[in-house]
Design brief:
Layout (H helix, E strand, L loop, with lengths): L3 E5 L7 H7 L4 E4 L2 H9 L5 E2 L6 H21 L5 E2 L2 E2 L5 H25 L3 E5 L3 H8 L4 E5 L11 E8 L2 E8 H16 L11 E6 L7 H7 L5 E5 L9 H9 L3 E2 L10 H20 L1 H7 L1 E2 L2 E2 L1 H31 L2 E7 L5 H12 L4 E4 L28 E4 L2 H9 L6 E3 L6 H4 L9 E5 L13 H18 L6 E5 L10 H8 L4 E2 L5 H6 L1 E7 L3 H8 L4 E4 L9 H4 L4 E3 L5 H10 L1 H18 L6 H10 L2
Parallel strand pairs: 1-2, 1-6, 2-3, 6-7, 10-11, 10-15, 11-12, 15-16, 16-17, 17-18, 19-20, 19-22, 20-21, 22-23, 23-24
Antiparallel strand pairs: 4-5, 8-9, 13-14
Helix pairs in contact: 3-4, 4-5, 7-22, 9-11, 11-12, 15-16
């Protein structure tokens, strides 16, 4: 029996030192990775809270999180609708990532208390109320209020840019990001002609990066239709290069808020109605208490504030956009929609409304999707071809993807088109090497609990540190790190890199095909799409398989890349590729074979997509 345990979520509290003076023998446990990082930085001995979870617990966490995401509304017997459209469907993708860490911590706390049988529990967590109920007056309980409430993934926007060759990464609130995006839109409009004939047929693209998809925009521009770009999650223009492309190709950037003026009264009434419905729903405390439970102990008192705020804020957004989108579609002759991320809230809304106007939509494959069967339970929340798409047609990269989709029992309207964002890779000519080695980091998958416990974050960072140590042994090589562009609110890899070496070279926005083509070797994680992009350019790849499922994929099975699962194998792998020319050439030969089997219409996919769109 431990007399006292101290459970910490996120940063260690200000009161930590004084509390530990009163409880010097307390066992300290980190409930999540940020807590582990905080304790580690302060050199405080601790244990990982989720190490107490069993395999059955992890599977139960997955199932409970999925069930909570999909069924909370049904189980309280209410629906939230605007214009006969059910609203909560639009935040399912992020809501799952909200529930997973909550249930992971909840199950961890249950198992910790069961196994350690403490006399006193001190806790600083979102789940203070839940833990107090677990202690049930039989265990002394001390609560430290956690000021930050859990949020949805994209309530915080991580921005990564390079300014004067200096990498900068910072995180801002969703509201501030929205204001900045609106300001950028207004400023760019001063230099662009955004007027167009709304009665003329138009192709609507959702959240496309003009730099990545320049070839596609150029091909679509040849069709006798307007090309409209509706970027709701990131600005269409954020640097001079993106501005030049938009201007040169006469692409029209759309802001839905331009359609607000004629909808003020309708918006006001709809928001008021939504608020009334939400108030009624959240008054029914007992149903929420009964639904959100672990071992018959309710989580609801711990998550009530954050969950109700999430619903209110995000459903306000959806309500507003639904009304503006209807106005937009009523006042524009949209012939087709092209998108690549339909699970996101904004794209999901567009596709839902567009169906009322019978507008055909096309979903582009944008990455190498994982094919392991472990992802099947999450197929509703990830584009793995095990769950129906909202788009009418799915444009895929080649035969192997088609075979996987068909073997999954998924029979959508598939079209093999190749990858338009990789046309530039196939036509890139300057493949001169400059002795660089690129480490392209990814993020730990925040779905399956079996692969997102604290030890996986630690393992990931240890692999990064080992790569740095190994490359330093090659004085004629230069290591460059390209962090993944998505939010890194959990594993802040930038800070980890700066701790390894403050002078390490980091690139956020450098031209990717040029960056890769300059390299002698690319190292990435879990078969990131960067691996495919590298072998297109004849650059050998090592992929570090931090998560076990990563070896169950065709690019690994084909021998097109070197897959390494053990940290002890990294140095030998790097040496083999850099010094064994025969092995290197065989690896490149296999990689070319894989690319030819995996990617159709190499360098001409944009033209293929354009033909498909023009015939819809």
């Amino acid at each position: 029996m431990n007399e006292t345990i101290f459970l910490i979520e996120d940063e260690i509290p200000k009161e930590f030192s004084s509390i530990m003076k009163s409880h010097p023998q307390a066992k300290i446990l980190a409930l999540n990775y940020p807590a582990h990082r905080s304790l580690e930085k302060n050199q405080i001995p601790h244990e990982l809270g989720d190490k107490f979870l069993t395999k059955d617990d992890k599977n139960a966490i997955n199932q409970t999180s999925i069930h909570s995401t999909i069924n909370w509304e049904k189980n309280i017997g209410k629906t939230l609708e605007i214009e006969n459209i059910e609203l909560t469907q639009f935040i399912e993708f992020e809501l799952l990532q909200y529930f997973l860490p909550i249930f992971r911590m909840g199950y961890s706390i249950v198992r910790i208390i069961e196994e350690l049988k403490p006399e006193t529990v001190i806790i600083k967590s979102t789940l203070n109320d839940f833990t107090k109920k677990l202690c049930d007056n039989k265990i002394n309980f001390l609560s430290i209020i956690k000021s930050d409430q859990p949020k949805l993934e994209y309530d915080r926007i991580n921005i990564k840019i390079d300014i004067l060759n200096r990498p900068i990464s910072f995180t801002i609130s969703r509201n501030l990001f929205s204001k900045l995006k609106s300001t950028i839109y207004k400023i760019s409009n001063l230099f662009l002609n955004n007027s167009y004939d709304s009665k003329k047929k138009s192709i609507l693209l959702l959240d496309f990066n003009p730099i990545q998809y320049e070839n596609l925009l150029s091909e679509l521009n040849k069709i006798e239709q307007n090309v409209l770009l509706l970027n709701q999650r990131r600005p269409a223009i954020w640097n001079y290069e993106s501005f030049k492309i938009i201007k040169k190709l006469n692409v029209k950037s759309i802001n839905l808020h331009d359609y607000t003026n004629t909808n003020h009264e309708k918006l006001s009434k709809s928001i008021s109605y939504l608020d009334t419905q939400l108030e009624k729903i959240f008054q029914d405390e007992e149903k929420f208490k009964n639904f959100f439970q672990i071992n018959s102990v309710s989580l609801w008192p711990s998550i009530k504030k954050s969950f109700s705020e999430i619903c209110r804020n995000r459903l306000h957004e959806s309500t507003t956009r639904i009304i503006l989108l209807k106005n937009f579609f009523e006042n524009n002759n949209i012939s087709s929609i092209l998108e690549w991320a339909e699970l996101s809230q904004e794209e999901n809304e567009v596709l839902t409304i567009s169906k009322q106007f019978k507008i055909p939509s096309l979903l582009l494959q944008h990455a190498m999707y994982p094919t392991s069967k472990i992802w099947e339970p999450f197929s509703r929340f990830a584009l793995t071809y095990n769950y129906p798409s909202k788009s009418d047609i799915q444009a895929i990269w080649g035969d192997l993807t088609q075979k996987h989709a068909e073997s999954s029992g998924h029979n959508p309207n598939l079209r093999i088109t190749g990858s338009p964002r990789h046309d530039k890779f196939f036509t890139y000519n300057n493949k001169k090497k400059s002795g660089k080695i690129l480490l392209a980091t990814t993020v730990i998958s925040n779905y399956d609990t079996n692969f997102s416990t604290i030890d996986y974050f630690i393992k990931f960072n240890e692999f990064v540190k080992e790569v740095y140590r190994v490359i330093k042994k090659f004085p004629d090589k230069e290591l460059i790190v390209k962090p993944h562009p998505v939010n890194d609110s959990l594993n802040d890899i930038i800070n980890v890199l700066h701790e390894i070496d403050p002078k390490i070279k980091i690139s956020h926005t450098q031209n990717l095909e040029k960056l890769i083509a300059d390299c002698d070797l690319v190292i990435t994680f879990n078969n990131s799409t960067v691996a495919l992009e590298s072998i297109i350019l004849d650059v050998p790849v090592i992929t570090l398989q931090v998560e076990e499922w990563a070896n169950d994929i065709s690019i690994v099975n084909s021998g097109a890349i070197m897959a390494i699962s053990e940290i002890s194998e990294i140095e030998g792998g790097v040496k083999k590729i850099l010094s064994d020319d025969d092995y290197r050439q065989k690896l490149i030969h296999k990689s070319r074979e894989f690319v030819n089997n995996y990617m159709s219409y190499q360098g001409t996919a944009s033209s293929k997509i354009s033909d498909l769109i023009s015939n819809l």
